[in-house]
Each structure stands twice: as structure tokens, then as C-alpha cells.
Amino acid sequence: MYADGARFLAPRLRSKPPPVGTGRGVPEAPNEIDTPVMEAGHLTDAAPTAMRGRLEERLRQSPALAASLILIAIFIALVIGEGLHDVLQTTVNGLSLGAIYALGAVGLTLVYGILKLTNFAHGDFLTFGAYMAYLVNVTWGAPLVVAVFWAMAATALLGLLFERTLWGPMRRRRAGFLQLILMSIGLAFLLRAVIQWFWGTEIRSLDVDNTSSVEFLGLRVGETELIVIVVGIVVIAAVGLMLRYSLLGKRMRALSDDLDLAETSGIDTKRVILYTWIFSGALAGLAGVMAAATTNIRPELGFELLLPIFAAVILGGIGDAFGALAAGMVLGVMTEWSTLLIDARWKVAVGFVVLVVVLIIRPQGIFGKAKAI
Amino acid sequence: MSSASKNGALLSTEGLTAGYVPEVDILTDVDLRVNEGEIVTVIGPNGAGKSTLIKSIFGLVAPREGRVVLRGEDLTGLPPHSITRRGMSYVPQLDNVFQSLTVEENLEMGALESGRAKDRIRAIYEIFPRLGERHTQAAGTMSGGERQMLAMGRALMPEPSVLLLDEPSAGLAPAFVEAIFEKVNEINNAGVTIVMVEQNARRALGMSDRGYVLDLGSNRFEGPGRELLDDPKVAELYLGGTARLDIS
Ligand SMILES: Nc1ncnc2c1ncn2[C@@H]1O[C@H](COP(=O)(O)OP(=O)(O)OP(=O)(O)O)[C@@H](O)[C@H]1O
Ligand SMILES: [Mg+2]
Questions:
Q1: What per-residue confidence (pLDDT) applies to A67?
Q2: A8 and B96 in contact by Cβ < 8 A?
């Protein structure tokens, strides 16, 4: 498949050739090399401001810490304004939404990181998962657990299918960034049309109990929602551990960091890419079922989730899987908090606002490690 | 200059012609021969095609003509990860560490069998104690010299018989340059055959068994490292003065 060898060099711009005729001893890229990358920011000398300067420095170097502090500040402000009970109640709701965002975002960010593919069809993978679960759970009447596994498997297969028939061949033909984006948008429309053709536009729901709820500490949580939260958190933790400690997880991160280098290091990148699609698809399928269980099923389900999922990807630092998980949860909670202040119909705007604000103040993301850009 | 007999060569290229853009050959008909245990240095002006040569040996640029042979096996057309499995490793000139991964994870990425990774990592830390001290640090936060060591360590993980180094000393602080060359010698003494491209031509040729001068994509000179250093023509054209000559 590497018949045209330069394919490894194609995706990234390698601007280098230093000026001809410079002295032999002149370093080629002095500011890239020998300068630790994270040394941004500066300390003030003046004694009285030194403390504040140091704090600022600390926050600049650790944006995740800064984000946590902001989050805590918002939490406290909301508690003062709206009361502890309401804030906790929306936080709980935010956890299930956040889990959906996080599981949707982690696959999207890895696919972007590794293949430089901004996959607009990812939202419709969630929709596909939801309908697959519907098929098994409602049409065939099987238990939801079976439906979940089926949805994950089917969505993973769908990801594999497109990699083999579309993305792989397109990369080999050196399709550019924009072509890939346009194709993924086309694929998104196509997937949605096919789903509509099979199931129509009517609103459906899974066979779950959406009436009974549990109560603790004065908070009411729907039984289904509670299950979604627990499953979501368990899966997020498992995914995080897998990415951190398993060989496949490390290899995925390595590919996301530098595909060419991964290949030359001896990693069979083609195989890891296939696993990434499986991983991304399965989690999208699961997120779709979770969204279906807590709300309902309709052809726009995934498309409507796509924007906040993209926002989570960017907030987490594009290509950073851990960042996407954390940012998804944060965004879910913030979205639900917003309903305390504004009409719930506007909560879709939260993702958009966060997206814009992050892109303006910190394009590399909040949780993303500052890489040399 | 003609290439010598390929008998007994561990690694050789035969009439290698390669390029990136259709119709434009960057390398033309390059013959290179590397014997077991040698240090071979390739020098030449900027843009001569030195990196391209190494990349085509390693399967990153597909040769248009010619072959790459390692231990009698034709490697032409194999993807890089399979070449690693056949006993050859490569350290790129730039971007040679996974920045967001820790030192230890970087090394692990070079391991071909996970079962042996732990032992190999320990061995690498013995060669580069600095890496051991920093094993949990993200590679992106390390200095240029440390990164170069990490990249070399990663390339040594599969216990290669041939190591390809693209300008290992480029852009490093002077203190590191000497350290890197010493490590290269040490690795070679441990039985690893080295092919390196270097800007630091005098220093590199001085420690090499043989050298090649590449210019405009072709071999211009080849011979024992010392002889090349002493060759008045090579000295005048490629080693002389402070300015690099652009030969055309
Ligand atoms: N990815 C690429 N696509 C197209 N042309 C390239 C690419 N990489 C290198 N070239 C061209 O090939 C020629 C040889 O480049 P190469 O990097 O092999 O030179 P080099 O001898 O390694 O130079 P340096 O001393 O600067 O590292 C140059 O003219 C360069 O512009
Ligand atoms: Mg080069």
C-alpha cells in the first residue's frame, strides 16, 4: 500500500530547507531545538506583584488547573445565585450529557489526530448506533444490553467499512484536507438519508423505563439516566486507562502525535488505523444509544450532538484523547448549568459559544498539552 | 566514481533513482555499500538529496529505479515498519520524537515485541542514563540534545543491525554535539552498523570507516573517511572555508 512512498510525507508540511551558504555550524532550527517548549509567560520582578505574577505563571502553564478554578468559581456563583439544590440537580443531568459528549468526542479526536480527517459523519454514527439499538431492542424485542453491544459492533463495522472503501483509497490518492471534509459532509447527509429511508422521520424511543426515578440527597435522577451516568463514567474511565496503559492505546496516541514517525518506529500503522476506526465507531455507537435512552430517537439525533462534540474536541486540544474525555464531561455539565440562567431551548448554543471562545483565547485547547505549533 | 563490488555488503543500494514530484529525480543512480560493523558517513551540500537517500533506503520514498538490499534481501517497496523488522532502524532529521508521549512511552513505541520491551528499555537507559532520569517526562518538553538521544534510543529498541542517522548533531548545543558523536561510536562498538548523514563533515568523516560525497543527487566521491578528509578536491569543494559551496 505504500507503493507511493511519499505518502508518509504528504499529510504534513515539511518546510525546511535552510538558506544555502550559511555557516556549517549554524543550528538549523534554533528555536525548535534546545528550547523547552512550555516556557511561555514571564515573571514580573517587582516584589509586590511577584506573588500574583507567579500565580499567573502557574495558571498559564497549567490551563487545566485554570479551567478547574473557573469551573469552581462558576459553580460557587451559581450556588449563591440559584441555590445548591438546583445546581446539583443540573450537575447530575450534566453528567449524562457529558458522558455522551465525551464518548462521542474521543473517537472523533483520535480520527482527526491520526488521519487529519475532520469527520462530519461522526454525528450520524451516533444516530446509526441509536437505530441499531432500536432495531434489536424494539423491533426484535431483545434486552437493551444486547442492543447496546449490537449497536457498538455495528457502528464499529460501519467505521471499518468506510475506511476500507472511502478514506483509505482517498488518502492513497492524496486527497487534500478540504476534499476530505467535503466528503465527510456528503457522507453525513447520505447516512442520514439512508436512515430516514429505512425508519422515516417519526420520533421513536427505546424500550426503557423513563418514568421511575430514584431520589437521594433530595435529588431526583431518572433510573435510565442513572444507568447512563454509571455506564458512561465506567466506560470513560476504562477508555482513559486503555489509552494510558495499553500498548494499543499508546500506539494510537503515538499515531495521533506523528503518523510518519510511528510507521518508521516499526508500528504497523495501517493496522492501528483500523483499530482506531473500530474504537471510534464502537464508542460513537454507545454514545448514540445513551442519547437515545435519555431522550428519543430521530434522524437528527447525532447531527444535533455534533456541534458540542466538536466543541469538546477543540476544548480538549485537537487530537488529544484525554482532553476530549475531560472536555466532554465539562461541556455537558456547563450545558445543563446554562439552563439555570437561560431558556433550555438555547442550551445547544453553549457548545457553540464555548467553541468560539476557546478558539479565540486558546486555540490549542484547555486540556491539550501545549505542543510546539 | 564507480561503486565497489557488493560482495559481502550488509546494506547496499544499486542504481537508486528517486524523487517526490513526477519527472523530477532528486537522486540519480546512487550506489552505496555498507559493510558489517562500519560507520559510513554521507556528506554533501544542502539539498543534495542526503535525507532523500536515507528515506529511500528506509522505504519512505519509493525508488523509481534501482534496489535496496539488506543482507541479500531486496527491501524495495516494503513499508518502513517491515524494514524495522528486518533489522534496520532510522532516526529522522527532524520531528524524531513523539512529543506528547513520555520518554518511556517513546521507547516502547520502538519495541517490536512487547514481551522484551522492559529489558530493552533498561538497556537503553544504560546507554543514555539521562533518559532513565527523565523517563516520565513528556518528550516535547526536552531539549534538542535529549530528544536526539531519545530518538536514537527508540531506534535502538528493536536491536537493529543497521542504524540510519539523519544529521544527529544538527542544531544541537556544542556540548551535546560531542556527546552525540561519542554515543554513535559507542553504539557502533556494540556491533551496530551506522549510516549517517552529517553537516559536521570533518568530525563525522574523522570517525568513519568510509564516506560518500553526494552532490545534486549523485555520488561524487567515495572512500575511507580519512582519505576523503585529506582529498584536496573534497576539502576544497565540500569542507573548505566557513561557507558551504553550492556546486552546480
Ligand atoms: N517532501 C518533499 N517534496 C518535494 N520535494 C522535496 C521533499 N523533500 C525534499 N525535497 C527536495 O529534494 C531535494 C533534496 O532534499 P533533501 O532533504 O534530500 O536534501 P538534504 O541533502 O538532506 O539537505 P539538508 O542538508 O538541507 O538536510 C531538495 O531540493 C528538496 O527541496
Ligand atoms: Mg537532510
A1: 80
A2: no
> What are the pLDDT digits (tens) for A15-59?
334 333 333 333 333 333 343 433 333 433 445 556 667 777 776
Indicate the range of A53-57, A96-100, A276-280 predicted with least confidence. Answer: A53-57
Mean pLDDT of chain B: 87
Single-letter amino acid, residue B122: R
Q: Is the pLDDT of residue B244 over 70?
A: no
CB B212, CB B222: distance < 8 Å? yes
Cβ atoms within 10 A of the Cβ of A114, count? 25
Q: Are strands A213-216 and B218-224 parallel, antiparallel or unpaired?
A: unpaired
Contact B97, A256 (CB under 8 A): no
Determine contact, residues A132/A285, Cβ cutoff 8 Å: yes
Which of B60, B147, B170 shows the shortest C-beta gap to A5? B60
CA distance B194 to chain A (A): 17
The answer to whether residue A127 scores a pLDDT higher than 80 is yes
Closest of B109, B83, B90, B89 to residue B98, by C-alpha: B109
Q: Does A209 touch chain B (CB under 8 A)?
A: no
Nearby residues for ligand 2 (ion, Cβ within 5 Å): B 51, 93
Q: From CA A172, how far away is CA A23, in angstroms rounded?
A: 39
Q: What separation in Å is there between the alpha carbon of B65 and the centre of ligand 1?
A: 18
Decide: A14 in ligand 1 pocket, CB within 6 A.
Answer: yes
Q: Among all chains, which residue has been given the C-alpha cell 484536507?
A: A177
Mutate to test the interface with A, among B55, B81, B108 (most CBs of A within 10 A): B81
Residue B215: its H or E element: strand B210-215
Percent residues over pLDDT 90 in chain B: 61
CA distance A221 to chain B (A): 39
The three grid cell numbers given for residue B1, joined into one nine-digit string: 566514481
Closest CA to A100 of A278, A290, A269, A260: A290
ipTM: 0.89
Beta carbons of A109 and A324 less than 8 angstroms apart: yes
Return the pLDDT at B116.
85
Atom 9 of ligand 1, nearest CA residue: B52
Superfamily of domain B9-94+161-239: P-loop containing nucleotide triphosphate hydrolases (3.40.50.300)
Q: How far away is chain A from the Cα of B206, in angstroms, using its nearest Cα?
A: 16
Q: Using alpha carbons, select from B216, B220, B238 the residue that is nearest to residue B49.
A: B216
Instruction: Name the closest-CA residue to atom 1, ligand 1.
Output: A9
Q: How far is CA A368 from CA A276, A304, A349, in A?
A: 20, 25, 23
* Separation in Å, CA A125 to CA A103, A150, A282, A323, B167: 12, 14, 9, 21, 45
How many DSSP H helices and E strands does chain A contain? 14, 2
Q: Which ligand is nearest to the CA of B53?
A: 1
Least confident among A182-186, A358-362, B229-233: B229-233
Measured between alpha carbons, how far is A272 from A275 in angstroms, rounded to an integer?
5
Q: For residue A344, give the 3-state DSSP assignment.
A: helix
A342 lines ligand 1 (CB under 6 A): no
- Element (DSSP H or E) covering residue B166: strand B162-166
Nearest CA in chain A to B169: A27
pLDDT digits (tens, 9 = 90+) for A231-272: 999 999 999 999 999 999 999 999 999 999 999 999 999 999
